[in-house]
Design a protein that fits this description.
Blueprint (H helix, E strand, L loop, with lengths): L6 E7 L2 E9 L26 E2 L3 E2 L7 E6 L2 E5 L1 H7 L6 E8 L9 E10 L5 H14 L2 E8 L2 E9 L4 E6 L9 H4 L9 H13 L13 H16 L18 H35 L1
Parallel strand pairs: 1-7
Antiparallel strand pairs: 1-2, 2-8, 3-4, 5-6, 7-9, 8-11, 9-10, 10-11
Length: 286
């Protein structure tokens, strides 16, 4: 089965440009167990809709973007305006510099990893040269480009027979570390405590890290539970119901009806009070 790429573009280093495509390194769905929310009464899957508190469900063509400058006050931005301020350049990852791997702190990785592969026969030779160059010099290429509709900071590195690409956070994304460490007030550590901690770390250190040793125990237990439940009970099937249109929730109408109901109840109460008051007056008069 052909691998599906999530991005097509170019990798550029100075005057060298290589057509490439990005393939997600993390599989979607394979080996995972996805649970759905169901209505307990009829076992129908729960749907999520875009709801306006005043007008009910709305379509995508009725939605605009807004920046909340203060509570309840928005600066409106049209989709075309957002598109215009994006970089007009073609989809290109431009390598700006190369750094040693240890120069990038793990916190700077955004957590999205892709295999970057050549697109088309003509791309294979320059791709191979860049891949071998990254590996021979043990460096990461740092660059930026327009990916999935916005500018992103990326690292390109040599892996076994293929380039890997990982997205990085921009510096402005980070919380100031001082805001976290200011009130920690950590105690001093004695030489003996440090010696024992170092000894423990030393005896627990591995020469190589093998991620295959770490299995997702929760997923395994969840699969076992599902198999057990499947054997013990009849599989739930949603009831067949006619497709009904979602009722529109109109807040103003609801408020008007509530006011009318309140006024009606208040009127009846006032009439009953007045009637009772007149009866009391007649009794006192007699």
């Amino acid at each position: 089965m052909a691998l599906r790429s999530s991005w097509h573009g170019h990798l550029r280093l100075s005057l060298v440009t290589v057509p490439v495509q990005a393939i997600n390194a993390v599989t979607e769905g394979e080996g995972k167990v996805h649970l759905r929310q169901l209505h307990a009464a009829c076992k129908t899957p729960i749907r999520y809709q875009k709801i306006c508190a005043i007008h009910g469900e709305v379509g995508n063509d009725e939605i605009v973007m807004g920046y909340e400058q203060e509570k309840g006050h928005f600066v409106l931005l049209e989709k075309d305006e957002l598109k215009d301020i994006r970089d007009k350049s073609e989809k290109t990852i431009t390598i700006d510099t190369f750094v040693a791997p240890e120069e990038i702190d793990p916190i700077e990785f955004e957590g999205r990893t892709y295999y970057l592969v050549p697109e088309g026969p003509i791309a294979k030779k320059p791709y191979a040269v860049l891949l071998r160059g990254l590996a021979a010099n043990n460096v990461y290429g740092v660059g930026r480009g327009i990916l999935w509709g916005r500018e992103r900071l990326v690292v390109v590195r040599a892996m076994e027979g293929v380039m890997g690409m990982e997205t990085l956070h921009f510096h402005s994304d980070f919380r100031e570390q001082d805001s976290v460490t200011a009130d920690l007030n950590l105690p001093d550590v004695t030489k003996e405590e440090l010696r024992l901690a170092s000894k423990l770390i030393e005896t627990s250190t591995s020469d190589k890290f093998d991620i295959a040793k770490y299995e997702d125990a929760y997923v395994g237990k969840l699969k076992e539970l599902i198999e057990t439940k499947r054997d013990e009970q009849q599989v739930a099937v949603p009831e067949e119901v006619e497709e009904k249109s979602t009722p529109v929730i109109n807040l103003m109408d609801a408020l008007r009806r509530s006011v009318a109901r309140s006024e009606s109840a208040g009127g009846k109460q006032r009439k009953a009070s007045a009637k009772q008051s007149r009866r009391g007056s007649r009794r006192r008069a007699s």
